[in-house]
Automatic annotation (TrEMBL):
Domain Methyltransferase intervals: 67-159
Enzyme class, first EC level, given as a word: transferase
Any one GO molecular function term: methyltransferase activity
Alphabetical GO biological process terms: methylation
Enzyme Commission identifier(s): 2.1.1.-
Keywords: Methyltransferase, Transferase
Name of this protein: Class I SAM-dependent methyltransferase
InterPro entries attached to this UniProt entry: Methyltransf_25, SAM-dependent_MTases_sf
CDD domains: AdoMet_MTases (cd02440)
Length: 244
């Protein structure tokens, strides 16, 4: 889930491997710069179609052509698309995640950073899929801007990016509902995370939660048409970005 390769332990991958190999209660401890520690069951990455949020099911319905699944985790989306007859390449930066996907039957798997020049080896894709708050893979506002340019080299003519993100401004509301954050500081949606599994601590990484207006501004500035396909009451949204 990180955006840069690290020599630190692969906490996410080890948790997913543990689950894959029968430790069904495997959990990750997730620390962030904006909230208390959260417990994330490895099982969540293995969910079936009907365990997925409606927004993810909508995204799968909107896929077309050759698909590049970025930040693919344990491969639940890639496997579902394979079952529907799609040609899918699944990519994750976590070596453990890649191993799990291979064991689960994802046909094309690669271990890459999303900015890696070797990511597609020059191949073009009709759909770039970025689910589970997948915009977060870009890390920061600068990373988002960089990725929107990079994605142009990955997309076939008429291709699309299907991505989810959310607005986390609610974390900064005071008791009266007013937003309280430093307007001169970093964007409030830029979060630093660390994951822990068993006695392993992964490298800290940045993750961005882009509010819809900001995402639209950045995407349109990069030349994309923006279509919001779905939003929910938790401030999460699914967006389609296309190039003219």
């Amino acid at each position: 889930m990180s955006t840069s390769v690290s020599a630190a332990p692969d906490a996410l991958g080890q948790a997913l491997l543990a689950y894959q190999h029968g430790h069904l209660s495997a959990t990750l401890a997730v620390h962030s710069s904006v909230a208390d520690e959260e417990v994330l069951p490895a099982a969540y990455f293995f969910r079936s179609l009907w365990e997925m949020p409606e927004m993810e099911r909508t995204a799968l319905e909107e896929c077309r052509g050759r698909v590049l699944d970025l930040g693919a985790g344990a491969g639940c989306h890639a496997l579902e698309l394979q079952q529907r007859g799609f040609s899918v390449k699944a990519v994750d930066i976590s070596p453990g995640s890649v191993e799990v996907m291979q064991e689960r039957g994802v046909r094309e798997v690669a271990c890459h950073d999303i900015f890696d020049a070797a990511l597609t080896q020059g191949e073009k894709f009709d759909t770039l899929l970025m689910l589970m708050n997948g915009i977060g893979l870009t890390g920061t506002l600068a990373g988002l801007e960089r990725f929107l340019e990079h994605a142009k080299t990955l997309l076939a003519p008429g291709g699309q990016i299907l991505a989810t993100s959310s607005d986390i401004s609610y974390l900064y509301e005071d008791e009266e509902g007013a937003l309280v954050f430093d307007l001169n500081g970093p964007y409030y949606g830029e979060v630093e995370y660390t994951m822990h599994y068993a006695n392993q601590t992964g490298a800290a990484f940045h993750w961005i939660f882009a509010d819809p207006a900001l995402l639209q501004d950045y995407a349109e500035a990069a030349g994309y048409a923006v279509e919001f396909l779905e939003e929910d009451d938790q401030q999460q949204y699914l967006v389609r970005l296309t190039l003219p």
